[in-house]
Amino acid sequence: MKVVILCTLFISTLISSNLSTLYKLYETQQYKRGCDYGFKYLKKNRDSEKFLTLYGLSCLETNKIDRIATPMVKLKNGKAQRENGSYFGTILLQKQLLKQALLDKKELGKLKLPKTNFVLSKIFNLFVHKRYHLKDDIYIFQDSNNRDIEYQLYIQKMATKNYMILDIYKNNKFIKRYRYN
Amino acid sequence: MINTKELEKRWLKYKTKSYLLLLFIITIVVLLIYGGYYILYKLDLNIDREKNIKPTADVKMVKDKNITVTNLASFPTPIKKDIEVKSDDNIVSLSPIIPIVDIDSETAKSKTVKKVTPKRKRVKKRLVKAKKSNYLTPDELKENKVTNLKDKKKKINFKTSSSNYIEIMKEKFHKNRNPREAILIAKAYYRAGDYKKSEEWALKANNLNNNLEESWLLFAKSKNALGKQEEALKILIAYYNKTKSPKVKLLIEKISSKSI
Question: What number is the ipTM of this complex?
Fold first, then answer.
């Protein structure tokens, strides 16, 4: 009995330390490190919904957006967790649909999906409402709230894979690039 | 002889009739009150909901019922809000809820395991130092102590990683107005020892969503840290009566026993 108690205590302390490390990485906006750290300790913390949420939110800011599929599926207990699950699910679906539209010229019509505050979600809504300029296979969008911000969406064809690239410009200066698988 | 039985029967009839009359009057009065209330309030609202879909309906209603415009303004108009929501393309908006992690307790938990190894090293170091000091003269020892103190002074750093974090979180909060971000800021201020700002941000979070327990706890903790123990207890007790939360109960006990 004592062994069992000690083991559970040990495991719980390990879980908590992982969570606080991930939280600190997220706090300091080290999303890439946070995403990789979360991925490394995902098995150990698969039942910790806080860990899964922070892991998902970290990966969302990186190029490894597909990793949010795990928290999307696992977050189901509690109102806040379910909302986060839907949030991840919406973004992942929007990314998938955008890629399909860009690669296969799939018509999205007037598709209505939930809005999120994530940049990809903004792009999706602009794309669906056809608020873009097409120039050399590059879709150029203007931010509806901030005229200084411009987005460029296009496909980068590699030998083995096709990447969907989202470049963000502010006052014609490059700020950030998302490169999705 | 007077027929008493017949008289009794007649008296009983008379009494029941008078009671029935009284009962009839009471039921009519009750029905009138309830009917009046129903017509005035409940029936009115129903008509409003049906007709408010058209924008001109409000004006007609005013004319019919002889209600002045000023009176109308005082009525709550939930229907208008519904229409506004419908006009917003019916799109649901989602935003992430960042979990609140109590780093202090998390690290305290993790330290219980990590503490075992460094303790041994410290013992070893102390042993080595103790042996060396045996060979020093008292004057040398004094010098040594002074230099050690100087070194120690140099080592003290008051750098906190939270200052940058607070700025980042503030930016995020101003963008999203998410109460959870306000809580995170309040928590960071509390950790940094700035209880006034912690109180301020906890209040901000509470104003945005008063169902978040964390905001109540932080507000009370900050109040307590500022020396307003009674106020903190009042707030917590009021919240506890509402929610019966064990966390709140624990904090009440801690504050009242001054163990926080």
Answer: 0.73
